[in-house]
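Quick check before the chapter quiz. The format below is the same one you will see on the exam, so make sure you can read both the input and the output lines.
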Amino acid sequence: MRHRFIRNLFTEMLKASRLEKLVLIIPFIVLIFDAEIFYFAWKNKEENILIASSFVLFLSILEILAVMKEIHEHVNRLRRREILEEKLRKIMKTMEKPTVRKVVDKFMASYPDEYSIKEVYHVTCNLIDELRKE
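Here is the expected output.
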C-alpha cells in the first residue's frame, strides 16, 4: 500500500514502448552529466558554472517529469481503449450481423457518459474490420 505509486510507475514504464523508454533514458544521462558538472563547480567554488549547471540540472529534472507524465497518459489511453474494445466485443457477440451503427447505438445506450461517440465509432470500425478479415 505504501509503495503503490512506485509500483504503478514501474509497471507503466515496463508497458511503455522502446521509443518512450529511450526518450526517458536520455534525460537521465543528461542529468548524470549535469550533476557531475554541478559537483565540480561546488567543489571548486565556481559561481558562474554553479548557477548555469544548477539551472540545467533543474531543466533535466523537469524533462524527466514531463516524459514520465507523457508515458503515464499514453498507458492510460491504451488501457482505456482495451477496456472499450472488450466491452464492444461483448456487445458484438450478442448480435447476429453487427454493423457499426447498431453496435455504437447499443453501446451508447448501455454506457452513455463513459466514452465519446467519436471514440466508440473508431474502435467499432476497427473491430468490425478485424471481424470481417477473420
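If your answer matched, good. Residues 4-133 form one domain.
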